[in-house]
Amino acid sequence: xxxxYRFGGGVSDGGNGDKNLLGGKGANLxxxxxxxxxxxxxxxxxxxxxxxxxxxxxxFGSGIVDEVTMGLNHIEVATQRGFGHTEDPLLVSVRSGARxxxxxxxxxxxNLGLNDQTVExxxxxxxxxxxxxxxxxxxxxxxxxxxxxxxxxLFEEALEIAKEDKGVHLDTELDADDLKALVQRYKDIxxxxxxxxxxxxxxxQLWGAVGAVFGSWQSERAKVYRRLNHIxxxxxxxVNVQAMVFGNMGDTSATGVAFTRDPATGERAFYGEYLIxxxxxxxxxxxxxxxxxxxxxxxxxGAKAASMEEALPEVYGELARVFDLLETxxxxxxxxxxxxxxxxxxMLQTRSGKRxxxxxxxxxxxxxxxxxxxxxxxxxxxxxxxxDQLLHPTLDPKAERRVxxxxxxxxxxxxxGIAVFDAxxxxxxxxxxxxxxxxxxxxxxxxxxxxxxAEGILTARGGMTSHAAVVAxxxxxxxxxxxxxxxxxxxxxxxxxxxxxxxxxxxxTIDGASGEVMLGAVPxxxxxxxxxxxxxxxxxxxxxxxxxxxxxxxPNDCRTARxxxxxxxxxxxxxxxxxxxxxxxxxxxxILAENETGRxxxxxxxxxxxxxxxxxxFEIMKxxxxxxxxxxxxxxEFLPHGEDEYAEVARAANVGVEQLKQRVAELHEFNPxxxxxxxxxxxTYPEIYEMQTRAIFEAAVEVAKSGEAPLxxxxxxxxxTRAELAIIRQLIDATxxxxxxxxxxxxxxxxGTMIELPRAALRxxxxxxEAQFFSFGTNDLTQTTLGVSRDDAARxxxxxxxxxxxxxxxxVSIDEDGVGxxxxxxxxxxxxxxxxxxxxxxxxxxxxxxxxxxxxxxGLDYVSASPYRIPIARLAAAQAAL
Length: 882
Ligand code: PEP
Ligand code: MG
Hints:
With 882 residues, this protein is of the alpha/beta class. α14 (357-370) runs antiparallel to α15 (375-381), α20 (531-543) packs across α36 (870-881) and α28 packs across α29 (722-743). Residues 434-515 form the PEP-utilising enzyme mobile domain.
């Protein structure tokens, strides 16, 4: 098979459709070349080769050598230069490029092809010996770090010494001779460290770099990134070898990064940064402070340094044309890297740009209105999980703030937590339940785990495209970057700014939308749900088939869920009402009662409270179905814990403390999750379910009398057999009849069951004869199908995900092959008996986008999710239907 694909110089062996094979970067370079954009010629070594390389014990077969030679040939012909030639040498860059971009995760080598001879050739053809020697020393430094594995500090140190010796501060103050001497010093370092000289053979250089790029796929930081982003390890990376173009050839040269629209707000304006006389990595690394692309952006920021629009107007004009062309071609916002070499524009990369949820939303809606995409495409463009960011609170504008610094608004949302100054501490403290703000001078890929653990990220250095900004936006973490006035001292674990000192553990608030950094905790307000957000939800609702309900039991949650668009309640966990501080005593009395009479007496006290809860919920959910689940957890969960509580309960229940303790001991269970819980409580203590049922129907009649009749659905938990459901259903129906007779009015209602045990799924056919609906309780169904305790899984599940045993945590994203098969089977068998059977899901999976896609496929009628996940579920349900 073929491993090398050329692009540029009038050739394109690949294109947009080849992302799996060529990686995102390679496919886009080929695509850009094919639509006539100026792309430096090069070739891509496919991801297949990466797999091959690892299968072959990290060696290259002979076929690949011939193909790479052909690829090099293509670049030589297109550039009219020779690789390793002393006269007019070809230099190349070697970059990784996986299917999806993994910013900063993998390695790059620039200026490859320089050696002691070719550097002279470059000096002659460029007419700029300083530039040639600077390129050579950069190359040795990068290659030694990435390919030879030498400590990059050794070279930094030599550079610092060279400057000190000359008495200068800036790299640019070193002249050609200084740099020539520095190159010699660098080569000495390599030889000292490795016992062999720096490779002079350009082909050896190339293979070393290709091997290093493949090797970086398995680096620790790449593995962590893949795990966090659910990227399979077997995808591999492609390698792009491309002719170098130089942004550091004087004042008509530049390098920059740009977005075709603002990646933070989505505003339709070119957005980016550039540096005159600089090489690619300088912008991204956040070392020099980049300048604005457009005049408008510069003016808005009140900056002095000329924008590209002002400094290089012609090239800017061409760039703007390219931006428009790319947006129309890709029909999406693009993230672009470019270089200007002596006035000529070169495109180095384009890809669909990462953006905040806010920007994703605005861009999708705007593009649909501009006619670039359809409404349905707009619905597909927004990642449901990212909507979370929009639903996050922002700072209360009326709250007092003590602003101590201002940086760039790199990723929106407000975050508050204790300051920590390194990633490991961030992870550790977050693990202990602290909310943390990770404060760094700048971040690097080694900090990823800490950024993930943090509520927000604050850096002193780096622009909007710095590592911290890009990664934080991707993760949905609020971030303020480049707050240059912060003096951060890692050793002292403290920062100082304008006379204020913030030590590790002190509370900070950051506002990723304004860039403000505040001392202490600042109150927040709930987000605005109208505007673009409302429009997207409207478009989503037009196409979705699945209904979306909520899991809620407090009036507050019910109202929030309604505001987010919930179409009823899919799970009201009545036990949460039992935990109420005032009621817990009656609950405990009920549990401790020696006999039915005692239990009934205590239950009678609970009845009015339950009834008024239901009245409130029915009123909030007017016109929508409300699924109320009868008591589920094991009784001992309600019992007292400490000595104080024992004394209090003993007093209230009028029993001795010893007697109480004995009763608690009797209730002890070894496996409470598989013990006396769910409908087993209703079977053994029918009076509990009878009271709850009475409360439901009394409330329903009360509400119906004053207006619209509610739609109660009574749900029985943890059913394993038809007989259990039959017994409890009789109890429910009998209670309903009694209440309706007493109150002189009847209400339509449904009785159904949760399917959360494998036996119930298997016997769904007969269980459906007793049920009007099934609701899949996938938390328990996952626990019981996998035999994995939902409360203890955390200890080993990460290892399972790391080893690829599960692609995702099965408690988060449904195990389609196992639990999913039971759901499909139960749906089929249930509807086989009762064609009109209503089917829903109320486990946590009901708010998980990929599980929702599964539910669509399984033909369920609704999903039920916690209030804040309602918009996510509406969008995910729409995407699943498209
Ligand atoms: C379930 O098991 O999926 C469920 C919704 O019930 P609970 O989480 O209350 O056990
Ligand atoms: Mg359950």
